[in-house]
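Hey team,

Filing this mostly as a record. A colleague (T.K.) asked me to run one chain through the structure pipeline before their review meeting, and I want the input and output archived in the tracker in case anyone asks later how it was produced. No errors, nothing strange. Just documentation.

Input sequence:
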Amino acid sequence: MSYVAYEIRMTKETATGTRHLVQCNYTNKYAIAGWVGSTGSSMGTVECQGQYDYVMKKWKKIVGKYVSVT
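Output structure:
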């Protein structure tokens, strides 16, 4: 099994595009990103990043639903 830097935890389609809740396995922080590479080695269009609670507050504003994944 190879190392995956960015792991998608949740995906949601919104009116303005797809959003991914991503966990960085190197720093153990979370982000909301517009895309993640197929191998998990890159991500882009990052809207916010930080600790889990902070990112989930933003996720709730964007998606409208708070879902615990940990």
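Quick notes for T.K.: The two ends are 22 Å apart (CA to CA). Residues 56 and 67 are 8 Å apart (CA to CA).
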